[in-house]
């Protein structure tokens, strides 16, 4: 038999265990819900940005990440892609990248989304990204890039690499080196942006309104420069 004092201690300990278990269950559920909500919001933002076609002239398609979507801006239509010349269509998804698992929101890599995005029938495809591939293996980035190039066969393509966002600065040289090498292999012009000194939000990852303007203007100028000396090639 348990002494009354021992019984109280056992009951008390059991209550603590149950309370902790309940707390952990709530925490896990809350985290899962937060993840689901975040992905849902990314999908809503992606659809909203896709509907915002800007400019006139030759049609350009931007396949990219949260920077192309304009995450963190009050008006998604003012993301950097707006600064490109011509009629600009954006197929962006926050958190996505070249590799299949850069995002935790399912099949949203550039390779996964490119076939649908090409329905805009672009004259030029600008692929922008790499920051979300910061923790992905070289093999994963390689597979994703090659799959994307297969999707973009017979398209004129330019690849815009990652800027040196403070939150991911240590990973940028590695990712950029991989993308540059792959672009050389495929004969695709590569636009480096890692030298740009841009204005970031407090998360040190996403751009301010001014940052989007600076990035967009620099990318537009550099695409014009690289395609003037080395025209965007038809990917084979």
UniProtKB/TrEMBL annotation:
Domain SGNH hydrolase-type esterase: 62-213
Pfam families in the record: Lipase_GDSL_2
Keywords: Hydrolase
Domain of life per record: Bacteria
The keyword Nucleotidyltransferase appears for this protein: no
Gene3D superfamilies: SGNH hydrolase
InterPro entries, per database record: SGNH_hydro (IPR013830), SGNH_hydro_sf (IPR036514)
Protein name: Acyl-CoA thioesterase-1
Source lineage: Bacteria, Bacillati, Actinomycetota, Actinomycetes, Propionibacteriales
């Amino acid at each position: 038999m348990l002494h009354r004092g021992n019984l109280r201690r056992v009951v008390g300990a059991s209550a603590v265990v149950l309370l902790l278990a309940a707390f952990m269950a709530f925490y896990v559920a809350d985290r899962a819900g937060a993840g689901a909500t975040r992905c849902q919001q990314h999908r809503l933002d992606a659809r909203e940005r896709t509907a915002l076609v800007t400019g006139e002239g030759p049609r350009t398609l931007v396949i990219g990440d949260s920077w192309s979507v304009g995450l963190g801006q009050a008006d998604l239509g003012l993301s950097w892609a707006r600064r490109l010349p011509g009629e600009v269509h954006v197929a962006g998804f926050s958190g996505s990248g070249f590799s299949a698992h850069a995002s935790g929101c399912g099949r949203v890599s550039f390779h996964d989304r490119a076939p649908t995005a090409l329905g805009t029938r672009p004259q030029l495809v600008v692929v922008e990204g790499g920051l979300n591939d910061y923790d992905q293996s070289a093999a994963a980035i390689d597979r994703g890039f090659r799959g994307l190039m297969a999707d973009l066969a017979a398209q004129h393509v330019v690849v815009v690499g990652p800027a040196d966002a403070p939150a991911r600065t240590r990973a940028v040289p590695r990712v950029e080196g991989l993308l540059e090498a792959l672009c050389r292999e495929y004969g695709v012009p590569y636009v480096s942006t890692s030298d740009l000194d841009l204005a970031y939000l407090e998360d040190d990852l996403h751009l301010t309104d001014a940052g989007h303007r600076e990035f967009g203007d620099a990318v537009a100028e550099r695409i014009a420069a690289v395609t003037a000396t080395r025209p965007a090639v038809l990917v084979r």
